[in-house]
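=== How it folds ===
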Amino acid sequence: MSPNRFYPLSVYFRRRFGCRVRKIALDAGSSCPNRDGLISAGGCTFCNEKGSGTGLAGTQPLRRQFLTARERMLTREKDVRFMGYIQSFSNTYGPADRLRGMMRELAGLPDLAGIAVGTRPDCLDEEKLAILRDAPFEEVWLDLGLQSAHDKTLRRINRGHDAACFAEWAKKAGDSGVKVCAHVITGLPGETLADFEQTLAVVNSLPVSGIKIHNLYICRGTVLERQWRDGELEPLSQADSLTWLVRGLTLLRPDIVVHRLNSDPDASELAAPGWALDKTKYLNATKQCLLESDVWQGKALGMPLSEWFNLDGRENG
Protein backbone atom coordinates (compact mmCIF):
# COMPACT_ATOMS: atom_id res chain seq x y z
CA MET A 1 0.00 0.00 0.00
CA SER A 2 1.37 3.41 -0.92
CA PRO A 3 2.28 5.62 2.06
CA ASN A 4 0.84 8.59 0.19
CA ARG A 5 -2.72 9.54 1.03
CA PHE A 6 -2.58 12.26 -1.59
CA TYR A 7 -1.52 12.33 -5.25
CA PRO A 8 2.07 13.64 -5.21
CA LEU A 9 3.82 15.12 -8.21
CA SER A 10 6.56 12.49 -7.99
CA VAL A 11 4.04 9.72 -8.65
CA TYR A 12 2.46 11.64 -11.50
CA PHE A 13 5.85 12.24 -13.16
CA ARG A 14 6.92 8.60 -12.86
CA ARG A 15 3.67 7.40 -14.39
CA ARG A 16 3.77 10.05 -17.12
CA PHE A 17 7.44 9.78 -18.12
CA GLY A 18 8.54 6.41 -16.72
CA CYS A 19 11.32 7.91 -14.59
CA ARG A 20 11.98 10.47 -11.88
CA VAL A 21 11.56 14.09 -12.99
CA ARG A 22 13.18 16.97 -11.13
CA LYS A 23 12.23 20.62 -11.46
CA ILE A 24 14.84 23.21 -12.38
CA ALA A 25 13.96 26.77 -11.37
CA LEU A 26 14.63 29.28 -14.14
CA ASP A 27 14.64 33.07 -13.96
CA ALA A 28 13.62 34.95 -17.09
CA GLY A 29 13.99 38.40 -15.53
CA SER A 30 10.26 39.02 -15.75
CA SER A 31 8.38 41.87 -14.15
CA CYS A 32 4.90 42.14 -12.69
CA PRO A 33 2.07 44.61 -13.35
CA ASN A 34 1.53 44.73 -9.61
CA ARG A 35 5.04 46.10 -9.12
CA ASP A 36 5.88 48.22 -12.15
CA GLY A 37 2.99 50.65 -11.64
CA LEU A 38 0.48 49.28 -14.15
CA ILE A 39 -1.69 48.02 -11.29
CA SER A 40 0.35 49.16 -8.31
CA ALA A 41 3.96 49.60 -7.24
CA GLY A 42 3.72 47.69 -3.97
CA GLY A 43 3.00 44.16 -5.18
CA CYS A 44 1.06 41.59 -3.22
CA THR A 45 1.46 42.17 0.50
CA PHE A 46 3.22 38.82 0.97
CA CYS A 47 5.69 39.16 -1.93
CA ASN A 48 9.18 40.59 -1.57
CA GLU A 49 11.27 42.32 -4.23
CA LYS A 50 12.82 39.03 -5.37
CA GLY A 51 9.46 37.59 -6.37
CA SER A 52 10.74 34.04 -5.75
CA GLY A 53 13.55 34.76 -8.16
CA THR A 54 16.92 33.03 -8.31
CA GLY A 55 18.84 36.16 -9.20
CA LEU A 56 20.27 34.49 -12.31
CA ALA A 57 18.37 36.66 -14.77
CA GLY A 58 20.72 39.08 -16.47
CA THR A 59 23.77 36.93 -15.74
CA GLN A 60 22.78 33.71 -17.50
CA PRO A 61 20.35 33.05 -20.36
CA LEU A 62 17.63 30.46 -19.75
CA ARG A 63 19.48 27.74 -21.69
CA ARG A 64 22.63 28.19 -19.62
CA GLN A 65 20.64 28.21 -16.38
CA PHE A 66 19.05 24.91 -17.34
CA LEU A 67 22.23 23.22 -18.57
CA THR A 68 24.23 24.27 -15.50
CA ALA A 69 21.59 22.94 -13.11
CA ARG A 70 21.16 19.76 -15.16
CA GLU A 71 24.88 19.01 -15.06
CA ARG A 72 24.99 19.51 -11.31
CA MET A 73 21.94 17.31 -10.68
CA LEU A 74 23.16 14.50 -12.92
CA THR A 75 26.22 14.10 -10.70
CA ARG A 76 23.88 13.03 -7.89
CA GLU A 77 21.44 10.75 -9.69
CA LYS A 78 20.92 9.02 -13.02
CA ASP A 79 17.79 7.97 -14.92
CA VAL A 80 16.24 11.36 -14.35
CA ARG A 81 14.63 13.99 -16.56
CA PHE A 82 13.79 17.60 -15.83
CA MET A 83 10.92 20.07 -15.84
CA GLY A 84 12.03 23.65 -16.44
CA TYR A 85 10.10 25.98 -14.12
CA ILE A 86 10.15 29.63 -15.19
CA GLN A 87 9.31 30.82 -11.73
CA SER A 88 9.90 34.39 -10.66
CA PHE A 89 7.29 37.12 -11.05
CA SER A 90 4.79 37.03 -13.97
CA ASN A 91 6.31 35.32 -16.97
CA THR A 92 3.50 35.96 -19.45
CA TYR A 93 3.57 39.68 -18.70
CA GLY A 94 4.63 41.85 -21.62
CA PRO A 95 4.57 41.25 -25.37
CA ALA A 96 3.64 37.81 -26.67
CA ASP A 97 6.92 37.69 -28.60
CA ARG A 98 8.80 37.68 -25.31
CA LEU A 99 7.03 34.51 -24.22
CA ARG A 100 7.54 33.02 -27.67
CA GLY A 101 11.25 33.71 -27.34
CA MET A 102 11.42 31.85 -24.02
CA MET A 103 9.81 28.78 -25.58
CA ARG A 104 12.20 28.92 -28.52
CA GLU A 105 15.24 29.27 -26.26
CA LEU A 106 14.34 26.21 -24.19
CA ALA A 107 13.27 23.96 -27.07
CA GLY A 108 15.40 20.90 -27.72
CA LEU A 109 17.38 20.93 -24.48
CA PRO A 110 18.61 17.47 -23.35
CA ASP A 111 16.46 15.56 -20.85
CA LEU A 112 13.84 18.31 -20.77
CA ALA A 113 10.47 16.64 -20.25
CA GLY A 114 8.47 19.84 -20.22
CA ILE A 115 8.11 23.32 -18.82
CA ALA A 116 6.07 25.11 -16.20
CA VAL A 117 5.42 28.84 -16.51
CA GLY A 118 4.51 30.88 -13.45
CA THR A 119 2.21 33.87 -13.94
CA ARG A 120 -0.91 35.78 -12.96
CA PRO A 121 -4.28 35.23 -14.67
CA ASP A 122 -4.50 38.90 -15.67
CA CYS A 123 -1.28 38.52 -17.68
CA LEU A 124 -2.78 36.08 -20.18
CA ASP A 125 -4.50 36.50 -23.52
CA GLU A 126 -5.49 34.23 -26.39
CA GLU A 127 -2.21 34.67 -28.25
CA LYS A 128 -0.08 33.82 -25.22
CA LEU A 129 -2.24 30.81 -24.43
CA ALA A 130 -1.76 29.59 -28.01
CA ILE A 131 2.03 29.97 -27.64
CA LEU A 132 1.96 27.75 -24.56
CA ARG A 133 -0.41 25.26 -26.13
CA ASP A 134 1.79 24.88 -29.21
CA ALA A 135 5.15 24.95 -27.41
CA PRO A 136 7.41 22.05 -28.52
CA PHE A 137 7.49 20.15 -25.23
CA GLU A 138 5.94 16.89 -24.09
CA GLU A 139 4.06 18.74 -21.40
CA VAL A 140 3.32 22.34 -20.49
CA TRP A 141 2.10 23.47 -17.08
CA LEU A 142 0.75 26.92 -16.31
CA ASP A 143 1.39 27.81 -12.65
CA LEU A 144 -1.43 30.24 -12.04
CA GLY A 145 -1.81 32.29 -8.89
CA LEU A 146 -5.25 32.32 -7.27
CA GLN A 147 -4.29 32.44 -3.55
CA SER A 148 -7.94 32.86 -2.50
CA ALA A 149 -11.32 32.63 -4.17
CA HIS A 150 -12.60 35.53 -2.05
CA ASP A 151 -12.38 38.98 -3.60
CA LYS A 152 -12.33 40.65 -0.19
CA THR A 153 -9.14 38.74 0.61
CA LEU A 154 -7.62 39.48 -2.78
CA ARG A 155 -8.22 43.18 -2.18
CA ARG A 156 -6.75 42.95 1.31
CA ILE A 157 -3.52 41.38 0.04
CA ASN A 158 -3.38 43.84 -2.89
CA ARG A 159 -3.58 41.05 -5.42
CA GLY A 160 -4.78 43.28 -8.24
CA HIS A 161 -7.24 40.87 -9.89
CA ASP A 162 -10.41 39.11 -8.81
CA ALA A 163 -11.33 35.44 -8.54
CA ALA A 164 -13.40 35.61 -11.72
CA CYS A 165 -10.24 36.46 -13.67
CA PHE A 166 -8.57 33.31 -12.40
CA ALA A 167 -11.62 31.20 -13.22
CA GLU A 168 -11.79 32.58 -16.77
CA TRP A 169 -8.18 31.82 -17.66
CA ALA A 170 -7.97 28.54 -15.77
CA LYS A 171 -10.92 27.35 -17.83
CA LYS A 172 -9.48 28.60 -21.11
CA ALA A 173 -6.07 27.10 -20.40
CA GLY A 174 -7.41 23.77 -19.19
CA ASP A 175 -9.78 23.48 -22.13
CA SER A 176 -6.91 24.19 -24.53
CA GLY A 177 -4.79 21.32 -23.18
CA VAL A 178 -2.39 23.38 -21.07
CA LYS A 179 -2.24 21.88 -17.58
CA VAL A 180 -3.14 24.39 -14.87
CA CYS A 181 -1.49 24.28 -11.45
CA ALA A 182 -3.44 26.53 -9.08
CA HIS A 183 -1.60 28.29 -6.25
CA VAL A 184 -3.51 28.80 -2.99
CA ILE A 185 -2.48 29.95 0.49
CA THR A 186 -3.66 28.82 3.91
CA GLY A 187 -4.01 31.37 6.69
CA LEU A 188 -4.40 34.50 4.61
CA PRO A 189 -5.26 37.65 6.63
CA GLY A 190 -8.87 37.68 7.73
CA GLU A 191 -9.66 34.21 6.41
CA THR A 192 -11.14 31.26 8.29
CA LEU A 193 -10.90 27.55 7.57
CA ALA A 194 -14.35 27.80 5.98
CA ASP A 195 -13.00 30.44 3.58
CA PHE A 196 -10.17 28.11 2.58
CA GLU A 197 -12.64 25.27 2.05
CA GLN A 198 -14.60 27.50 -0.32
CA THR A 199 -11.42 28.33 -2.24
CA LEU A 200 -10.79 24.62 -2.82
CA ALA A 201 -14.40 24.18 -3.96
CA VAL A 202 -13.71 26.77 -6.67
CA VAL A 203 -10.51 24.97 -7.67
CA ASN A 204 -12.44 21.68 -7.89
CA SER A 205 -15.02 23.27 -10.17
CA LEU A 206 -12.44 24.27 -12.79
CA PRO A 207 -10.27 22.23 -15.23
CA VAL A 208 -7.32 22.39 -12.83
CA SER A 209 -4.81 19.53 -13.05
CA GLY A 210 -2.50 20.41 -10.16
CA ILE A 211 -2.26 22.49 -7.01
CA LYS A 212 0.35 24.13 -4.80
CA ILE A 213 -0.80 24.77 -1.25
CA HIS A 214 1.38 27.28 0.57
CA ASN A 215 1.21 28.13 4.25
CA LEU A 216 1.35 31.88 4.76
CA TYR A 217 4.71 33.09 6.06
CA ILE A 218 5.94 36.58 6.76
CA CYS A 219 8.74 37.62 4.42
CA ARG A 220 11.14 40.39 5.39
CA GLY A 221 10.69 43.68 3.58
CA THR A 222 7.03 43.14 2.76
CA VAL A 223 3.83 44.96 3.67
CA LEU A 224 2.83 41.78 5.48
CA GLU A 225 5.87 42.10 7.76
CA ARG A 226 4.90 45.63 8.74
CA GLN A 227 1.31 44.51 9.43
CA TRP A 228 2.57 41.60 11.52
CA ARG A 229 4.93 43.79 13.56
CA ASP A 230 2.06 46.24 14.11
CA GLY A 231 -0.06 43.40 15.49
CA GLU A 232 -2.55 43.46 12.64
CA LEU A 233 -2.19 39.75 11.85
CA GLU A 234 -0.65 36.55 13.13
CA PRO A 235 0.35 33.56 10.98
CA LEU A 236 -1.19 30.19 11.78
CA SER A 237 0.53 27.96 14.31
CA GLN A 238 1.98 24.77 12.91
CA ALA A 239 -0.89 22.77 14.45
CA ASP A 240 -3.55 25.04 12.92
CA SER A 241 -1.75 25.05 9.58
CA LEU A 242 -1.81 21.23 9.56
CA THR A 243 -5.51 21.26 10.40
CA TRP A 244 -6.22 23.52 7.43
CA LEU A 245 -4.04 21.52 5.08
CA VAL A 246 -5.39 18.09 6.02
CA ARG A 247 -8.97 19.30 5.83
CA GLY A 248 -8.23 20.86 2.46
CA LEU A 249 -6.82 17.61 1.10
CA THR A 250 -9.97 15.72 2.08
CA LEU A 251 -11.96 18.21 -0.01
CA LEU A 252 -9.65 18.14 -3.04
CA ARG A 253 -10.59 16.24 -6.19
CA PRO A 254 -8.52 13.03 -6.18
CA ASP A 255 -7.31 13.51 -9.76
CA ILE A 256 -5.60 16.83 -8.93
CA VAL A 257 -1.85 16.38 -8.64
CA VAL A 258 -0.35 17.88 -5.49
CA HIS A 259 2.78 19.79 -6.56
CA ARG A 260 3.47 21.29 -3.15
CA LEU A 261 2.04 21.06 0.36
CA ASN A 262 3.92 23.87 2.08
CA SER A 263 6.02 26.95 1.53
CA ASP A 264 9.80 26.81 1.32
CA PRO A 265 11.16 30.14 2.57
CA ASP A 266 14.84 30.98 2.74
CA ALA A 267 16.10 31.52 6.28
CA SER A 268 17.47 34.92 5.31
CA GLU A 269 14.06 36.21 4.23
CA LEU A 270 11.79 34.66 6.87
CA ALA A 271 10.45 36.85 9.66
CA ALA A 272 7.78 34.43 10.97
CA PRO A 273 6.75 31.78 11.80
CA GLY A 274 9.96 29.97 12.65
CA TRP A 275 8.44 26.51 12.13
CA ALA A 276 8.09 27.23 8.39
CA LEU A 277 11.83 26.67 7.93
CA ASP A 278 11.64 22.92 8.61
CA LYS A 279 9.99 21.72 5.43
CA THR A 280 10.70 18.02 6.01
CA LYS A 281 9.28 18.06 9.52
CA TYR A 282 6.09 19.70 8.25
CA LEU A 283 5.66 17.22 5.40
CA ASN A 284 6.21 14.27 7.71
CA ALA A 285 3.71 15.72 10.19
CA THR A 286 1.18 16.09 7.36
CA LYS A 287 1.52 12.45 6.34
CA GLN A 288 1.30 11.35 9.98
CA CYS A 289 -1.81 13.46 10.53
CA LEU A 290 -3.50 11.98 7.45
CA LEU A 291 -2.73 8.49 8.72
CA GLU A 292 -3.76 9.05 12.33
CA SER A 293 -6.97 10.83 11.30
CA ASP A 294 -7.66 8.09 8.73
CA VAL A 295 -8.33 10.61 5.96
CA TRP A 296 -7.01 11.12 2.43
CA GLN A 297 -7.33 13.32 -0.63
CA GLY A 298 -10.96 13.37 -1.75
CA LYS A 299 -12.40 11.49 1.22
CA ALA A 300 -14.96 14.24 1.91
CA LEU A 301 -16.05 13.97 -1.73
CA GLY A 302 -16.83 10.27 -1.38
CA MET A 303 -13.57 8.71 -2.60
CA PRO A 304 -13.15 5.43 -0.67
CA LEU A 305 -9.70 4.46 0.55
CA SER A 306 -9.75 1.17 -1.36
CA GLU A 307 -10.17 3.01 -4.66
CA TRP A 308 -7.61 5.64 -3.74
CA PHE A 309 -4.73 3.18 -3.40
CA ASN A 310 -5.65 1.39 -6.62
CA LEU A 311 -6.68 4.35 -8.76
CA ASP A 312 -5.16 4.03 -12.23
CA GLY A 313 -2.47 1.70 -10.88
CA ARG A 314 -0.76 4.45 -8.93
CA GLU A 315 2.45 3.50 -7.18
CA ASN A 316 4.58 5.30 -4.68
CA GLY A 317 7.07 7.68 -6.28
User: Anything to note?
Assistant: The radius of gyration is 19 Å.
